[in-house]
Amino acid sequence: MFDRFWRGGRSGASGSGLGLAIVAAAARQHNARIHVEDGIDGRGLCVKISVPGPDGSYVPA
Q1: Could you tell me if 27 and 53 are in contact, meaning their C-beta atoms sit under 8 angstroms apart?
Q2: Burial of residue 50, with CB atoms counted within 10 A of its CB: 0-12 exposed, 13-18 middle, 19 or more buried
Q3: Which is it for strands 33-38 and 45-50: parallel, antiparallel or unpaired?
Q4: Cα atoms found within 13 Å of the Cα of residue 25, Cβ hemisphere only
Q5: Which residues lie below 8 Å from residue 2, measured CB to CB, with a gap of 6+?
Q6: CA distance 10 to 5
Q7: pTM, to two decimals
Q8: Radius of gyration, CA atoms only, the chain
Q9: Widest CA span of the chain, in angstroms?
Q10: Is 33 strand, coil or helix?
């Protein structure tokens, strides 16, 4: 899902499949964590990003 040009088999949506690859690259640069879960009412996708605070700890997603 975080690979460039990857698209879900049943997505039916337009786009090139670069969005989450860009998010993952930015997260790596900032030592952030990515959490993926179902969207509201099981529709779509929810992506949460946690960036470490000044003390290096993460706020739970």
Answers
A1: no
A2: middle
A3: antiparallel
A4: 7
A5: 20, 21, 23, 24, 34
A6: 15
A7: 0.69
A8: 13
A9: 43
A10: strand
Q: Kindly report the length of the chain.
A: 61
Element at 48 (helix H, strand E): strand 45-50
Query: Domain coordinates of the chain in residue numbers?
Result: 1-8+15-56
Q: pLDDT tier at 1 (50, 70, 90 boundaries)?
A: confident
The helix/strand/coil state of 46 is strand
pLDDT tens sequence across 2-60 = 788 877 666 666 778 788 999 999 999 999 999 999 999 989 889 999 999 999 998 76
The whole-number pLDDT of residue 27 equals 93
Strand partners for 38: 45
CA 58 to chain centre: 16
